[in-house]
UniProtKB/TrEMBL annotation:
Keyword tags: Membrane, Transmembrane, Transmembrane helix
InterPro entries reported in the protein's UniProt record: T4SS_pilin
Regions that span the bilayer: 52-76, 88-109
Pfam families, per the entry: T4SS_pilin
Protein name from the UniProt record: Uncharacterized protein
Domain of life: Bacteria
Length: 114
């Protein structure tokens, strides 16, 4: 089952790259069509999305860590508020970690389809 899924994904990427060989502008019956995405393949689009998430996620991570620290500092001995601050920091770090791991997965996927 996994082999079939991998072959299906490879065929989709191959078809996309075959269609996108002349990405940019394409002349169809006297009408010039531009590629609205601006990339040549699905892998390039995936890379752009992940890069965007990394750049946007870093400031959000910093804000969430500061917010979690603020929650811990203002807990005033209440264990529930302290745990809430800890969870805020942990979830923010785990979420950004997932974004960073997705960049590594992108590299692995690119190597598999070369």
């Amino acid at each position: 089952m996994d082999f079939l899924n991998l072959q299906f994904i490879k065929s989709l990427v191959w078809i996309n790259e075959a269609v996108a060989q002349g990405f940019g502008q394409r002349d169809v019956g006297g009408i010039t069509l531009r590629n609205p995405i601006g990339t040549g393949s699905i892998a390039d689009l995936l890379g752009r999305i992940i890069d965007f998430l990394i750049y946007v996620g870093a400031p959000i991570l910093a804000i969430m860590v500061l917010w979690g620290g603020f929650q811990i500092l203002t807990a005033a001995g209440e264990p529930e508020k302290f745990k809430t601050g800890q969870k805020t920091i942990i979830y923010a770090v785990v979420g950004y970690g997932i974004i960073l791991i997705s960049k590594g997965v992108e590299f692995v996927i690119r190597d598999l389809f070369r």
